[in-house]
Inverse folding.
């Protein structure tokens, strides 16, 4: 990637890594790593740049962000002195809607 700003270059690379692990149907480039849906479990779909419903990023280093954002969001763009950057990708997941359960009881094992 050709980008003079280390922070922006690292953000683009993180987004591309997210693309690689969340998209299917492009076997000539990579094997899909996305989980398959099953009864009661619907994993998040592919990551789409700029769409919050598909995932948000939290900066971990060089400065830990207390919140998540959608790329491209370059915020203050704190530059790392050693060129090291890391983000966590937070993805939406869903399960069966809770309904009709009956609480049977609990036991305290302490």
């Amino acid at each position: 990637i050709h980008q003079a700003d280390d922070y922006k270059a690292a953000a683009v690379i993180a987004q591309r890594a997210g693309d690689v692990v969340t998209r299917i149907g492009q076997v000539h480039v990579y094997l899909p790593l996305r989980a398959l849906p099953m009864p009661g479990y619907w994993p998040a779909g592919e990551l789409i740049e700029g769409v919050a419903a598909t995932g948000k990023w939290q900066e971990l280093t060089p400065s830990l962000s207390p919140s998540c954002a959608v790329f491209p969001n370059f915020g203050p763009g704190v530059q790392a002195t050693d060129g090291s950057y890391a983000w966590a990708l937070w993805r939406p997941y869903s399960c069966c809607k809770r309904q009709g359960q009956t609480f049977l009881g609990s036991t305290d094992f302490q």
